Amino acid sequence: TSACCFCASAASQNTCFLPFSNHKTMNNEFQNHFMALYCTNVDECATNTHSCRPRERCVNTVGSFVCELQVTCPAGYQLRNSVCEDVDECLVRTHNCGLGFVCENTVGSFMCKPKQKCISGFTQDSHGNCIDINECSSLDEPCGSGFNCINTVGSYSCQQKIIMCSNGYHASPSGAKCIDIDECQMGTHRCGVGQICHNLPGSYRCDCQTGYQYDALRKVCTDVNECWRYPGRLCAQTCENTPGSYHCSCTSGFSLAFDGKNCEDVNECDKKPCSQECANIYGSYQCYCRQGYFLKEDGHTCEDIDECSQSIGNLCAFKCVNVAGSYQCACPPHGYIMSANGHTCRDIDECMTGTHNCSFGQNCFNLQGSFRCLSFNCPANYKKVSDTRCERISCPANSLDCQNSPTRITYYQLSFQTNIIIPAQVFRIGPSPAYSGDHVVISITKGNEEGYFSTRKLNSFTGAVYLQRRVREPKDFQIDVEMKLLRQGTSTSFLARIYVFITSSTM
């Protein structure tokens, strides 16, 4: 199959016409060859037939186009491959250096350097003329602080600044500024004794020390009495003013706490001020004594109470013995033993306990605190019918003494104390049994020589023996009391042999 192509040329466009309807059947090799001979490229960028965005740049290619991101370069740079590169103005001869200058490229620009150098202090302008350099503006701090820079032809000079400072200030060593005068450190202040100098900008201030206040009239610092100014607020108990301060103290029985203000109770008992017992109380202490002691006037010492001498009444029946803190009762060394109550003495019955020293033929009679050994022997013409009774044997017809002697002799033992109330009935005697018409006569026939005893008839058949005189000391009596019984015209006598023992009422 053959094909025929008619081409028409237009400006910046390549156009190819293939009139044959069956051109699609041409093989690719022939088509490419045909296009290379007869077809021209279309510039989409110039014909504005591209599809690039406003920020993109259209770049034409053979048979197509490319959209590149548009980059704007600053002066002195040009875009190459989407990168801003420095333009060498000296190379491309876009500089404006004169004939007397040499172009020297710099990044983003260029410099025109003179071909001939000027002397020190001068520089060439764009026309090659040497002009003065103003070092005061071109150099960084050509003069030190405190100096003014003055430009001269070809050079410059530094002239010291003249600074005027107000009162309380002076010029710095460089003369560049005014600095404060520390009157406190230099000692040029006029603060009084006891005042503290505080430096201020351009001046100073005189303050009083802590605990002092300024007296404007006398122009001195006076002590503040904190105790008067703040009554009851500084110390728990006692406030004492001191120069410039105060001190808290405590009354007796208290100690100052760690905070220096409050008071704590002192336990005085820790120092053992009492001889016996100590009880701590708030702010003080109290001494106590154990039973049997009393607290002396010094309030500290305990002394033994002598219960034996100070007691009201009798503590002990016999003897009180004072001991430390108490007392003990004692009994006589012989004849008594202490009762269970520890106060009274109980008589020892030596006759019952067998602690007597009576012989075999004697009878033991117990007394208060002692005993007696008694012998009950019958006289001649009498026989012993019991331990305490003797009866008369028949008398010869011609013996009047025997016939007048008592028909019976009976032994009795009586014991009383010296404090017995006088007169006291101590013995009764009468017939047993008694009959109507009986009549008795009572008399003491022996042993009443000192008249301590008397007899009294109670009725016709009864008589009594009385102790009528006080016996002040322990004493033993043996009295014979005879009773004559008149019965039916017959007279019969009986004898009572009585042992009366008066013992001490106080042991």
TrEMBL record:
<dbReference type="InterPro" id="IPR000152">
    <property type="entry name" value="EGF-type_Asp/Asn_hydroxyl_site"/>
</dbReference>
<keyword id="KW-0106">Calcium</keyword>
<dbReference type="InterPro" id="IPR055088">
    <property type="entry name" value="Fibulin_C"/>
</dbReference>
<feature type="domain" description="EGF-like">
    <location>
        <begin position="223"/>
        <end position="264"/>
    </location>
</feature>
<keyword id="KW-1015">Disulfide bond</keyword>
<feature type="domain" description="EGF-like">
    <location>
        <begin position="180"/>
        <end position="222"/>
    </location>
</feature>
<keyword id="KW-0964">Secreted</keyword>
<keyword id="KW-0325">Glycoprotein</keyword>
<keyword id="KW-0245">EGF-like domain</keyword>
<dbReference type="InterPro" id="IPR018097">
    <property type="entry name" value="EGF_Ca-bd_CS"/>
</dbReference>
<comment type="similarity">
    <text>Belongs to the fibulin family.</text>
</comment>
<keyword id="KW-0272">Extracellular matrix</keyword>
<feature type="domain" description="EGF-like">
    <location>
        <begin position="265"/>
        <end position="303"/>
    </location>
</feature>
<dbReference type="InterPro" id="IPR049883">
    <property type="entry name" value="NOTCH1_EGF-like"/>
</dbReference>
<dbReference type="InterPro" id="IPR009030">
    <property type="entry name" value="Growth_fac_rcpt_cys_sf"/>
</dbReference>
<dbReference type="Pfam" id="PF07645">
    <property type="entry name" value="EGF_CA"/>
</dbReference>
<dbReference type="Pfam" id="PF12662">
    <property type="entry name" value="cEGF"/>
</dbReference>
<dbReference type="InterPro" id="IPR000742">
    <property type="entry name" value="EGF"/>
</dbReference>
<keyword id="KW-0732">Signal</keyword>
<protein>
    <recommendedName>
        <fullName>EGF-like domain-containing protein</fullName>
    </recommendedName>
</protein>
<keyword id="KW-0677">Repeat</keyword>
<dbReference type="InterPro" id="IPR050751">
    <property type="entry name" value="ECM_structural_protein"/>
</dbReference>
<dbReference type="GO" id="GO:0005509">
    <property type="term" value="F:calcium ion binding"/>
</dbReference>
<dbReference type="InterPro" id="IPR026823">
    <property type="entry name" value="cEGF"/>
</dbReference>
<dbReference type="Pfam" id="PF22914">
    <property type="entry name" value="Fibulin_C"/>
</dbReference>
<dbReference type="InterPro" id="IPR001881">
    <property type="entry name" value="EGF-like_Ca-bd_dom"/>
</dbReference>
